[in-house]
Amino acid sequence: MNGRTYKLVTGIISLFIALFLAWRIGLWLEPAPQQGSPAPAVSSPAAKEPPFVTGTVKKDLGFEVRNVAFSDKGKAVAGIGIVRFDSDRSELKAAAVAMVTKLKEQVPAAERITLTLKPAVDCPVCAMAEVAWDRGTAVLRYGIPSLEQMEAANARIGTKDEEGKPVDQPRLYRPDRETFAAGLAVTLAMDAARKKNPALNDEQLLEQAAAATGINYVVARRHRDFMAAYYTASGYGEETFTLPLP
């Protein structure tokens, strides 16, 4: 087998691996059939335990709360709130309020509730928002951009910053299922490589992830950078509001 044939064969094998992986992740993200009420946001396969609470924000937006932990004799509650990966920023406040309200109903003694809103429990860089409720006052920190923030960020691409350096950053947009699936695959593979060898730097982790997923290195880097720029946990502003709960 000559070099050209070898590259062709390995390329075809890598392509099939990448397509299979995307298909598998696609299954994780596929909503369950409607059965009278909207399906909850789909959690990752790592979430084997049943959710602590579930609920509905509106017709097409459900939620789950998982990985709940208690402290301060049950007065402080923390967890992960699962919502759709493509939830609009405008939906996050309603989702956060619904989650906190449902948790308070489930744990009446709770005086403080802290949640990270994510589309998948085990995704290390997928935080869409953080909400902290403390005896009637809630602080919501947004981790994904609004349409206006995306437009402003994208308009800066190719311009120069205050130091005169070209602005080189990912173009922001609401991800579709394929974009999120590929980004999730890369970030999970990087996280697995980091746990296996903590001494690796980011570029080495990316190389490991590209090899593990079969995704081209340049494409994998693009997915990594987009995920880090779009899902920031708390990098796109915050608001404080009153949320009295019994």
Would you write up a description of this structure?
The protein is an alpha+beta fold and 246 residues long. It has a domain of 103 residues. The chain is 41% helix and 20% strand. A seven-stranded mixed sheet has the order 1-2-3-4-5-6-7. Strand 5 and strand 6 form a beta hairpin. About 13% of the residues have low confidence.
For the report, how would you describe the main beta sheet? 7 strands, mixed
Helical amount = 40-55%
**Average of per-residue pLDDT values:** 85
Largest sheet strand order: 1-2-3-4-5-6-7
Series of H and E elements: HEEEHEEEHHHHE
Radius of gyration: 20 Å
Poorly predicted regions are 6-10, 21-46
Strand content: 15-25%
Overall outline: globular
Number of helices: 6
The total of beta strands comes to: 7
Distance between the termini: 73 Å
Secondary-structure class: alpha+beta
Produce the secondary structure layout.
Layout: H1 3-29, E1 53-58, E2 61-71, E3 76-82, H2 89-106, E4 112-118, E5 129-134, E6 137-142, H3 147-156, H4 177-196, H5 202-213, H6 217-230, E7 238-242
Parallel strand pairs: 3-4
Antiparallel strand pairs: 1-2, 2-3, 4-5, 5-6, 6-7
Helix pairs in contact: 1-4, 4-5, 4-6, 5-6
What tags apply to this protein structure?
246 residues, alpha+beta, 7 strands
Brief summary of the model shown:
The protein has 246 residues and is α+β, with helices and mostly antiparallel strands. The protein has six helices and seven strands, in the order H-E-E-E-H-E-E-E-H-H-H-H-E. Helices cover 41% and strands 20% of the residues.
